[in-house]
Specification:
The protein is α+β, with helices and mostly antiparallel strands and 173 residues long. Helix content is 28%, strand content 24%. It contains 1 helix and 11 strands. Strand 7 and strand 8 form a beta hairpin. The N and C termini lie far apart (97 Å). Bound molecules: FE2/S2 (inorganic) cluster. FE2/S2 (inorganic) cluster binds next to loops.
Length: 173
């Protein structure tokens, strides 16, 4: 092969090898980005599984079971929730945030109802809507009872359309 032909081949090879380099660079960067996304996803999954209902560190002590009379509502302003104890003894913890636009609802003991001061939505002792515009029941919070002590996780709100008896936590003797 003549020297001129070899130089031509070298000149033609250069753009190809540059393209190859950039292809490899992009593949490498794509792989790194994929690994990073995977790492972030795993981290999120691990941290959210740590925040589950069984994470006892997230629960705060509300009080002894006997501190709460049936058909009563106790406010916990620091945790921004109410603890209701229904007539049958079941406990229900609910966010005090109105499900309409987020104002704080107040408990009216005389009328046995939660009332939102912003647009007059009202809710039963179990959080069900009795007067709109609130579109759904007050959000639920996990409750556990251990050694006669009622504990609530104020950080894990669950949206619900309405109350059902399966949402209650009972003290089992
Ligand atoms: S924010 Fe409660 S009724 Fe509108």
């Amino acid at each position: 092969m003549s020297r001129e032909k070899k130089e031509n081949i070298n000149i033609q090879k250069e753009p190809l090898s540059r393209r190859g380099f950039f292809n490899k660079l992009w593949i490498g960067l794509g792989t790194l980005a994929g690994i990073e996304v995977l790492g972030i996803s795993l981290n999120f999954l691990l941290s959210s599984s740590k925040m589950g209902k069984n994470d006892l560190a997230s629960f705060i002590v509300a009080g002894k079971v006997d501190d709460f009379k049936p058909n009563s509502v106790t406010p916990f302003r620091s945790g921004k929730f109410y603890l209701s104890r229904l007539n049958d003894g079941g406990f229900l913890a609910m966010s005090l945030t109105c499900t309409h636009l987020g104002c704080s609802v107040g408990w009216n003991k005389l009328e046995n109802t939660f009332i939102c001061p912003c647009h007059s939505s009202s809710f039963e002792i179990n959080g069900d809507v009795t007067n709109q515009p609130a579109p759904r029941a007050l959000d639920l919070l996990p409750v556990i009872i251990e050694n006669e002590i009622v504990k609530v996780n104020p950080n894990e709100k669950t949206k619900r359309q309405s109350f059902s008896s399966s949402q209650l936590t009972y003290h089992v003797v």
